Amino acid sequence: MPAPLKVLIVDDSEQDALLIVRELQQRGYEPAYERVETPKAIKAALEQKAWDVVISNFVVSQCTALEVLALLQEKNLDLPFIIVSDTMSEDIALQAMKAGAHSFFKKKNIKLLVPAVERGLREVTIQRERKRAEEKLKVSEQNYRELYENLRDGWAQIDEYGRIVQSNPAFRQMTGYSEEELLHLTYKNLTPEKWHAIENRILNEQVRARGYSNLYEKEYRRKDGTIFPIELRELTTFPMSPSRRPGPSCARSPSASRRRRRLKFREKDFALLPKPPMI
Predict the structure, then answer these.
(1) Under CATH, to which class is 151-271 assigned?
(2) Would you say 233 and 257 are in contact if contact means Cβ atoms under 8 Å apart?
């Protein structure tokens, strides 16, 4: 059964248009086509109907194929654009390809039409799918950003070398640093030295082993030098090597009575652990 194909033909010759239609029919397509030749008619056809492919002569009565291509791009229409012309030099053909045309050839090589149409349809399909994926990714990233920006708990992303690459307002308020200042710091710059060995132990035995840590407590140092307790959980978003740090971390500052009790317990608890290896 012939495959339907909606074809806009830009040509001032009905005979040449029929040459295109017959070639499509002979190769298994059932073209529903319209022939146009002026910029006004081209614009109207693009606005009033949906097309699968545009096939154009290089020079028609009032415009060139490059101008037709510009109209398509102006309207953000992702359509295969094929030029079939005997009046086009190789230099201009190359210019048209750089501008976005999918294929060009002379009318005597009309047998190249169907392969060019099918290749153009595949390329446009891939391009549309890529655009849809990019749009979904942008929406996802925006939703993700809105989520962590509005978290009441502090949130920071740490790269594999321990550098802080992203943080939310709650984390910045907690530490007293601006977003720009945090980009020049590592998590160890914020952590008093007495917690480094404990945290290395958690990193090695929990995060590297399973991708996340239990909720634990430590201390941070604010920009003004004051020390304050926090609850923290770490998780990784990429494969861990022995020398690398996980990705996002989430921190919060517990209530005063709870944190004094927990910190005392935690320090005692961790003191019983074997000394962690140096990394």
Answers:
(1) alpha beta
(2) no
277 within 8 A of 197, measured Cβ to Cβ? no
CA gap 54, 106 in Å, rounded: 16
Instruction: Return the number of other C-beta atoms located less than 10 Å from residue 271's C-beta.
Output: 8
Separation between Cα atoms, residue 271 and residue 177, nearest integer Å: 31
pLDDT tens, residue by residue, 70-110: 999 999 999 999 999 988 777 888 888 888 999 999 999 99
Q: What tokens does 24 get?
A: 């499509």
- Tokens representing residue 138 in the block: 């942008």
CB 82 within 8 A of CB 116: yes
Provide the CATH number for the domain formed by 3-141 in this structure.
3.40.50.2300
44 and 16 Cβ atoms separated by less than 8 Å: no
Looking at the chain, which residues constitute the CATH 3.30.450.20 domain(s)? 151-271
pTM: 0.56
For 87, which DSSP code? S
The answer to whether 245 and 159 have CB atoms below 8 angstroms apart is: yes
Percent of the chain with pLDDT over 90: 51
Q: CB within 8 A of 152, min separation 6: which ones?
A: 170, 252
Q: DSSP states of 44-74 as a string?
A: HHHHHS--SEEEE-SB-SS-BHHHHHHHHHH
Give start-end residues of each CATH 3.40.50.2300 domain in the chain: 3-141
